[in-house]
Amino acid sequence: MSKELSTEEKIREAAKNVFIAKGFDGCTSREIAKAAGMNVALVNYYFCSKKQLFKLVFEAALEDFMLSTVEVFKKDLSLESKMRIFIEREFEFLILHPDIPRFILSELSRGDKCEFDHAGILDKIADTGVFEELLDAQEKGIIRKVDLTNLMLLIMSNCHYPFMAKPLMKYLNGLSEEEYQERLMLQKQYVTEMLIGYLFIPKTNN
Amino acid sequence: MSKELSTEEKIREAAKNVFIAKGFDGCTSREIAKAAGMNVALVNYYFCSKKQLFKLVFEAALEDFMLSTVEVFKKDLSLESKMRIFIEREFEFLILHPDIPRFILSELSRGDKCEFDHAGILDKIADTGVFEELLDAQEKGIIRKVDLTNLMLLIMSNCHYPFMAKPLMKYLNGLSEEEYQERLMLQKQYVTEMLIGYLFIPKTNN
DNA sequence: AAGAAATTTAAACGCTTGTTTAAAATTAGT
DNA sequence: ACTAATTTTAAACAAGCGTTTAAATTTCTT
Fold first, then answer.
1. Which residue in A116, A205, B139, B141 has the most C-beta neighbors within 10 A?
2. Which residue in B153, B177, B189, B196 has the most chain A C-beta atoms within 10 A of its own C-beta, making it the best mutation to test that interface?
3. Are residues B42 and B117 in the same domain?
4. Does any domain span residue A204?
């Protein structure tokens, strides 16, 4: 097994798990140290402060969150195929990391904890050419002319929210974990068909 | 003006604002007391503990959140009209209380803080007859046969997420508050048309 | 093997936390 | 007006917080 993690990496990994599960305010330095099997002082020895460690974890999570699935737009496929694959991969990513959307949006909502370096993320997304491709498709009448902010919201809403709302929905509908996972797989299908059906303008044969 | 709030009500009101803005872990009893213009000890004099005060605030917010817009299903309108009005009111509610979805889902995601009484909420929703009406419409072929959990997810995703993602979207797209509010108004239209278009099966005239 | 550097530890620092106490101030009852 | 009950206050409590210190241990260099 890959037990060859350095102390620094062990702390970073433990911090990621604890921060994402409980949030910056909801955990302590000692808790992170214990999760990493270390002394408290080592956390600050390697990362100076709880804030700084959090900043590293958050920025890594944000980058993962935003970039994990957009590289599909570099491929040579039809826009509809790309959209389908994008949603497919987004759900795959979120099944592995279901807490990341809530973590990102929660921590971002009160940004006084520390300023984050979002810089570069938008550039990396832009580098895939996705924005040009969408605008081009709008010009050609392939997809609906909707502001890209609204377009992103439509897609992200339907991908992220089902994972964020899991505790609420499980209770309200009395579902087990397995049953909710089944609903998530169905949701992926519905969301894909709904978004494709709404965004893509049917070809008129006249 | 209605400055006739009792001490207890002032604390409850201040606690609501502070808890929703910063979360249970992100604020202190003294902060709530100061926001209410009171001594710290008064918080516990009236509400016993921070946990108990939070429980009251959370349950009230959850009830508001889940019940504020469902009474439209008691009215005598077509299902499509009800759905349109429901989404309209959901957005209206969220423009007034944009932080509630994030608050509810965040605090619910680590339920060890205290157990909440969700009981009754589902019953009150059921009392509007919305579930029977939806199942009936599915039987009659008016709307798509989709599990009600998935149906709720489709609607809630598209209503709640645009408000939860505001900090992220404002940064990513470099938008001012006013510009984002404009996008939200547009989003309401898009979401309504997309959901109606997907859920309702077009009448076939043959 | 010896000494220097890096790592790890236990202990302590000052400060803030939620909560409690006991006295002061206000209100209510007669 | 006097007493009792209620409300409000300032002060204190132990416990936990993030962080620092200085000594112990390990690792590296020669």
1. A116
2. B153
3. no
4. no
pLDDT > 50? residue B52: yes
Test mutation, A25, A134, A153, A191, chain B, max B CBs within 10 A: A153
Task: Report whether pLDDT(A1) > 50.
Answer: no
pLDDT for the residue numbered A115:
74
B chain contacts of residue A23, beta-carbon cutoff 8 Å: 23, 25-26, 106
Report how far residue B30's alpha carbon sits from residue B204's, in angstroms, rounded to the nearest whole number.
64
**Which residue's structure tokens are 């590289």?**
A71
Residue type, B51: K
Q: Is the dihedral of CA A107, A73, A88, B84 positive or negative?
A: positive
Tell me the percentage of chain A whose pLDDT exceeds 90: 85
Q: Quick one: B62 and B148 in the same domain?
A: yes
| pLDDT given for residue A17 in this prediction | 98
Q: What is the DSSP letter of A74?
A: G
Confidence label for A203 from pLDDT (cuts 50, 70 and 90) = confident
Are A118 and A18 members of one domain? no
First to last CA, chain A: 62
Q: Residue B13 sits in which domain range?
A: 1-48
Let me know if residue B164 belongs to a domain. Answer: yes
Question: What's the CA–C1' distance between A13 and C5, in Å?
Answer: 27
